[in-house]
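Title: Request for sanity check on DUF4259 domain-containing protein prediction

Description:
We are preparing a figure and want to confirm that the structure record we downloaded matches what your pipeline produces today. Could someone re-run it with the sequence below and paste the raw structure tokens into this thread? We only need the token string, no images.
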Amino acid sequence: MWGDQPWDNDPAADWYGTMMKKTGLAAHVRKTLSEELHKDSADVLRAAAFCLVQFGRIYVWPTEELKDDLKLGIAALKQVLEDDEYCHSIEITIDVREELAQLEERLNTYIW
């Protein structure tokens, strides 16, 4: 164990790796973000980006795609923030901004 998080140990990191391969979650999120970016689909973009908020971190997400996928998630959430119909309340806007800040911090602090 090298930290306090659920993914900060070898067995857990291996489990996440197996889960990502078996479910194809990372590939599905990546495909969704790539295809839906610049479309009028804030709801789908936020849902896909939320997977990165939860799982888009070292030892959980496939490492070779993590940096690019975080960038996609950041772009997606920035687009969501521009959609006034989706961000119809201050609460939703605050939540999306917090999710965006998490992804930006993760991208900026991860050692590549």
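Thanks, this matches our download. The radius of gyration is 14 Å.
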